[in-house]
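Troubleshooting: if your tokenizer reports a length mismatch, compare against these two reference records.
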Amino acid sequence: MKIASQRGFTIVELLIVIVVIGILAGITIVAYGGIQQRANNTAKYQAAASYEKSIQLYIAENNNAPPMGAGSVCLGHGYSIRGSDTVGSCGGSDYTTKEDPAFDTAIKTILSRVPDASNKVVTKENGVTYVGITLTNWDGFRVDGQPNPYIMQFVLEGRDQDCKVPGVVQMINGEWGNFTYATTQRNTFYDNVSTTCAIALPSGS
């Protein structure tokens, strides 16, 4: 009786299997990264849209925006404490914005639950990092030539993303603070790895 010989994998066959597994793993990692990016972006612009509506309602009821002691505040609750800060901070690595309890107390009269902060760090092409959502009150902001001191800002992961919040503005002649309402694109500006969203809010009287 002839016994069938057992044949193992050759080196070439093993290398092919390893290459195929590597390709499949790479595809899985890329797909997972895309899902995570969409989830992070969706959470951010949904929170921004919630704040945009709540601030407008607050202004309609109080004829003024919520108090902002430092001129800019973090929108959201639970930002990480960084460096020497004693409260959570957000915004760009080139400037600091902090949570403001007075603002949160005021906005809770409209928004029953302050959204959780997004501590996901987004890195722009120039190396500047950005965390969360900020609201800035500055008299130098103008939209279509008119004073508009309240601008909300956040940064999404990925090139040329849709900000999906009403009131998106673009810069005029590349000048930050001199804006017009966006009509030719769906964001304020973008680079190869990130998208910046600036949203003009009404200020009341």
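Reference record two:
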Amino acid sequence: MKIASSPNKGSLEVICGPMFSGKSEELIRRIKRAQLAKLSVVVFKHRFDNRSTLQHVRSHDGRLSPAHAVDNPQQFFDYVTSTTLVVAIDEIQFFSNDIVPIVCQLIDSGKRVIVSGLDLDFKNNPFGCMPLLLAIADHVTKLKAICMDCGSEAQCTQRLVNGNPARYDDPLILVGAQEQYQARCRNCHSIGI
């Protein structure tokens, strides 16, 4: 289902950074502020992200926001209506590039779209749809974490396999948390052999 274009275009806000930088926490903060302003908000996450609950966006510090878990961005239109003003999407890097025209359609229909996700994968390469979303964003917030090795600012996500750095040919997507990932600075980030 298509939502009609609006003479007043919406906007795109991208929250990005490595694991443990507070991306979901910042997304939830913006959702709550929109709700306090009595704006109609719809929240999504990819069904693939089943770390704790499919019914919520959850930050590592335990904050929650109810969400719809979907496989395909076309499913957004089952929940977004003409009265929806804000659309929030967590872990957007799990969606294919097919999400970009959907986000553009939401913006054209006057929606404020707020997304969060990893901008770099564990290999330190641009992750999925994020480069395209960053290019069309009205506002970008790039968060940093703390390096788990040296305590510096961290902009990389280190994947671990049995305590060792993942190899370059390991699968790109592996849902996990502290048991499989660490935030690292560029100097401490490595790829296994």
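Descriptive notes for reference record two:
- DSSP finds three helices and 13 strands in the chain.
- The mean pLDDT is 90.
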